[in-house]
From TrEMBL:
GO terms for biological process: fatty acid biosynthetic process. Pathway: Lipid metabolism; fatty acid biosynthesis. NAD(+) binds at G15, S21, I22, I95, K167. InterPro entries: Enoyl-ACP_Rdtase_NADH (IPR014358), NAD(P)-bd_dom_sf (IPR036291), SDR_fam (IPR002347). The active site is at Y150, Y160. This is Enoyl-[acyl-carrier-protein] reductase [NADH]. The lineage of its organism: Bacteria, Pseudomonadati, Bacteroidota, Cytophagia, Cytophagales. The keyword Phosphoprotein does not apply. It comes from Siphonobacter aquaeclarae. Its EC number is 1.3.1.9. Keywords: Fatty acid biosynthesis, Fatty acid metabolism, Lipid biosynthesis, Lipid metabolism, NAD, Oxidoreductase. Belongs to the short-chain dehydrogenases/reductases (SDR) family. FabI subfamily. It catalyses: a 2,3-saturated acyl-[ACP] + NAD(+) = a (2E)-enoyl-[ACP] + NADH + H(+). GO terms for molecular function: enoyl-[acyl-carrier-protein] reductase (NADH) activity.
């Protein structure tokens, strides 16, 4: 059921790779709620995905942009305003990549050049987006920027390696720039710490299935789905959350608040 939460809103949604990605589902939900937006991703990622299919469904234009390149971001924000006919009301930052994880490098054997690339793509790109948007005055007052994070920013998880540092920096940038942008233009900046989700990126992490099953057993509501996350994202884009900013918002079925669940405790007790 649609409620018209984003009727008249203009946005930019990054990171939609395929139908399993949270950004893809967020685009569908934003379209359903009445928003108009452009889709963007790095050219190399676009060649791997099916973003044209999503664009047709959502009646959206695609503007390729490498989020680590300020020149690309300047074109993205400028062209998006031209296409949509005004300032941007919402931005979704759904961007993350670790070559160390892709190539199976352990935390004690990281390639540091790849590590810096992880930080640039997964975290610093948010700062570049926000700084570029501010300089161009591209986001409307009470606009909303949302970036996707994970609880590994606060806790240690095996095999998440350098992405844990990237997510921690992502959340820090959201707080620091959230203060600045809020004072300057009343623009909101938040991160969502989502449950482990069966996306293309998520399932590429070694041990993901164990992450997923453990979180599901720990969470009183079970793991939050990608579809549910898309719904949550839309509420943060809407006018109903105008006073929410600089927050890392856990959307994880309660996982972040549980010490140990009964299901996990039962698994620790030897069966007679």
């Amino acid at each position: 059921m649609a409620y018209g939460l984003l009727k008249g809103k203009r946005g930019i949604i990054s990171g939609a790779l395929d139908a399993n990605s949270i950004a893809w589902k967020a685009a569908l939900k934003a379209h359903e709620e009445g928003a108009r937006f452009v889709l963007t991703n790095a050219p190399i990622a676009m060649r791997m995905g099916a973003i044209k299919e999503l664009a047709e469904t959502c009646e959206a234009e695609i503007i390729p942009a490498d989020a680590t390149e300020v020149g690309d971001l300047e074109k993205l924000f400028t062209q998006s305003q031209e296409v949509l006919g005004g300032k941007i009301d919402f931005v979704l930052h759904s961007i993350g990549m670790s070559t160390n994880i892709r190539k199976g490098r352990e935390y004690g054997d990281l390639n540091y050049e790849w590590f810096l690339k992880s930080i640039d793509v997964s975290a610093l790109s948010l700062h570049k987006m926000l700084q570029t948007a501010e300089k161009l005055d591209a986001i409307a007052e009470y606009g909303s920027v949302v970036a996707l994070s994970y609880i590994a920013a606060q806790r240690s998880f095996p095999d998440y390696t350098d992405m844990a540092q990237a997510k921690a920096m992502l959340e820090s940038i959201a707080r620091s720039y959230g203060y600045r942008y809020g004072k300057a233009k009343k623009v909101r900046v938040n991160t969502i710490s989502q449950s482990p989700t069966k996306t293309t990126a998520g399932t590429g992490i070694s041990g993901f299935d164990a992450f997923y099953e453990y979180a599901d057993k720990m969470s009183p509501l079970g793991n939050a789905s990608a579809d549910a996350c898309a719904e949550y994202i839309v509420t943060l884009f809407s006018d109903f959350t105008r006073s929410v900013t600089m927050q890392n918002l856990f959307h994880d079925g309660g996982f972040s608040g549980v010490g140990i669940s009964q299901e996990i405790a039962d698994l620790m007790i030897p069966k007679e």
